[in-house]
Amino acid sequence: MSVLVTGATGYIALHVIDLLLKENYRVIGTVRSKEKAAKLEKQFNYNKDLTFEIVEDIANLSAFDHVIKNHANEINYVIHMASPVTFTADDFEKDILIPAVNGTKGILESIKQYAPKSVKKFVITSSIAAMMDLTNPTAILTEQSWNPTTWEQAQENGIAAYSGSKKFAEKAAWNFLEENKGIVDFKLTTINPVFVFGPQKFDEDAKGKLNSSCEIIKEAMFAPTESEIDKSVFGSYVDVRDVARAHVCSLHNDELTGKRLILSNASFTKQNIVNIMNKRFPQLKGKIAPADNSELPQGGRVHNEKTKALLGYIFKDLEEIVVDMADQILKVQEQ
Ligand code: NDP
């Protein structure tokens, strides 16, 4: 069985690819350049079940044509993860919204044209951002929630642009399926994670600046002693390995078909992270912000009991995630 994974260089994608290879799938990854493919080939120890195709820019609606055409009978599953993950851009529409939406529309049209019957499952990595109403920050979020933003509002700032990009891209996938019933054979599952944290798949990638979500938590983990640490709920978290597992489960678990899965364990404050660092890394005391053992608030606005029941595995908790990330970062800093 072969799986096409778009955005194969990504933080989450590397964990997904690793899991797929361990479960004996053949994987075709899309990357933006030959150099990026060469790095991944080496990282995955030249695994013969892992090959790459170059897709330079998903904003181009025909970007995936050559990939789907060349592997038309081979690809059984698609995990579409490539999307801009940034809150800064010169032009929010051109740099964030259009690539996200065109990437999704483009790959779906390519499948319709070249592999309408061989692709059986399409899994898209959406986001809690596709569900959140930025103007109502206390609203409860469930598997039914939709971000109400308009295309125009999504161009007001970076957070609105990223959130809008995830909403419009996910909507494009559901709409496509509705409009192409009977023409394409595949089923759809969307994975909507909250903040994804946890170790990088490969230690060498834990050096320097990390991907957007991990960089947020890393700043709190290693905040200097005198820092003002935010004690309010910052958001909700989930471990990258749990997110990867949900993608792979979605390929073969029919109960997940047609579902939007919210990947979230619990809410967190930055002070929770600082407290874990102080407890588990006593050697850093005096070098990082101090613990504060007063009671911290809990958010609880993400209600994903349905997803948890469907997936049936326990998500990792914040302590395990922070410790695994810190161990990896400290290890590579010593090298
Ligand atoms: P990364 O930034 O690590 O990965 C993004 C991937 O998309 C990279 O492979 C990147 O390629 C590719 N990409 C971005 N823009 C383009 C483009 N215009 N053309 C071609 N490829 C492009 O992010 P994550 O692993 O964190 O995110 C993966 C997916 O998960 C995204 O869809 C994201 O929205 C979603 N997600 C992430 C969350 C998180 O907390 N990390 C939370 C919720 C959802 P390159 O490496 O070459 O830049």
TrEMBL record:
Gene3D superfamilies in the cross-refs: NAD(P)-binding Rossmann-like Domain
Gene Ontology terms for molecular function: oxidoreductase activity, acting on the CH-OH group of donors, NAD or NADP as acceptor
Keyword Chloroplast set for record: no
Keyword annotations of the record: Oxidoreductase
Taxonomy, superkingdom: Eukaryota
Family, per entry: Belongs to the NAD(P)-dependent epimerase/dehydratase family. Dihydroflavonol-4-reductase subfamily.
The protein's name: NAD-dependent epimerase/dehydratase domain-containing protein
Organism name: Vanderwaltozyma polyspora (strain ATCC 22028 / DSM 70294 / BCRC 21397 / CBS 2163 / NBRC 10782 / NRRL Y-8283 / UCD 57-17) (Kluyveromyces polysporus)
